[in-house]
Amino acid sequence: MSIRQISLIGAPTDIGAGARGASMGPEALRVAGIAATLAAHGLEVADRGNLAGPANPWLPPEGGYRHLAEVTAWNQAVHDAMLAELRADRLPILLGGDHCLGLGSISAVARHCRERGRKLRVLWLDAHADFNTSALTPSGNLHGMPVACLCGHGPQALVEMSGAVPAIDPKWVRQIGIRSVDPGEKRFVHEVGLEVFDMRFIDEHGMRHAMELALATLDANTHLHVSFDVDFLDPDIAPGVGTTVRGGPTYREAQLCMEMIADTGRLASLDVMELNPALDLRNQTAELAVDLIESLFGKSTLMRA
User: What does the record give as its pathway (predicted)?
Assistant: First the structure.
């Protein structure tokens, strides 16, 4: 049964990123009309406003991590806010902010699934695998590490946030649209058996087949979480991100991806991450993101059986 009550949670920080500006992402999504767009589909939308957290000190990495204390504080705030909405049987949408916040969000979802005895499937829509560690990272930026931390590879404060270590099993994750993975990270992804539908797979087999495999075996007891990094999209259509990588999904491929997720009726939580209005053109990336989110919640060209 699909959830009809939506909560928007803003997390205005670029604390884990290598470029400033993702802190303005939540407001750009609001300006692009996310609340009204979802409400037009008969959903009850409550905007919870923005979370508060430490300012970005913009310091070099220490011990392989940049801003670890601040990243931990922001993720704890995200975790607590997401968990409160899930426990109230609402569907939370996290408006990022950089993708390090996916750690707090999915930690909350994993905790909630344990409490309810539900299975979890995470779709990670991204140009990057985000499976770096302090030993592998070229930058120390924590927005390149959330999936590794969720799988138990990272600093104690982050890996323990869900109340269990690891928060998730790599087998629960499906990564889609990947096309930029660091050399050491590539080996690590292979070692842990992460299921990745990279752009070569999508080029060879099509988005439909990739999504059929990514969504296989979902059942009524599965909580589907989508973590949507806007750099998943090709930068020709979505320039407003700090980490553009050419060769991403086209508009139609992205729409198909979202519509197939909607068709499952299992979507129960969502992150929208890494939107950087400072790098955008007249808010077009935010407007595209809202268009795609609308498709996640049932917009389609025709009535379908």
Answer: Nitrogen metabolism; urea cycle; L-ornithine and urea from L-arginine: step 1/1
